[in-house]
Amino acid sequence: MFTGLILELGEVVSFRLKQTGAVLALKAPALAKDAVVGDSIAINGACLTAVAVEGNAFRFDLSAETLASTSLGQLKAGTRVNLEPSLRPDGKLGGHFVTGHIDAVGKIRSRTVAGDALRIVIDAPSRVTGFLVEKGSVAVDGISLTVVDVAADSFSVVIIPHTARVTTLGLKGEGESLNLEADILGKYVARFLAGDRSGAPDRDRRLIKSLVEAGYLEKRGR
Known about the structure:
Blueprint: E1 8-18, E2 21-27, H1 29-32, E3 40-43, E4 46-54, E5 57-63, H2 64-69, E6 80-85, E7 104-114, E8 117-123, H3 126-129, E9 137-140, E10 143-150, E11 154-159, H4 161-166, E12 177-182, H5 184-194, H6 202-213
């Protein structure tokens, strides 16, 4: 589990494809200082396991599934990446609950300067935008951000100068790929509302019935 607050910008040392996946090595002095083999670390939002910690560097094994479902296959030596260690029991939840499981890869449609801030419009499939709401949360390359607007095939966020400075969003341009993860709480709510509610407790069924009768929810056939 992560929070979407980036602790360090790491740098890719090497990225080597192999028959069943890839091997990634990167420099991250701040995180490597306290890390051990087996730690979970989010790299551009994707949860990976450190298989080696050597000085100020990490090594990770990437499966074919990870390469297919994230943008990590585009990494190369010198690329900067967002890094966040997993949330500790006594840690602060400053962003939102992020699982590190990527829903889809989006692309930057446009970047517009708005005063000191940066407005970014991101192309995204419906399996992501369907779970987004204005002023809700979304993880973009592992960064916890607030959604500004939502359309069927895109959404927008506004980046303050600090976020642009300490994450890869200050470095990426139009057409570049981003790992996207919708808020997991929204996914659970959507599944509950769309699924079979016959096994729900009586109080939940009564609540759903009241919401349907009041017009807040659509009545679904059985």
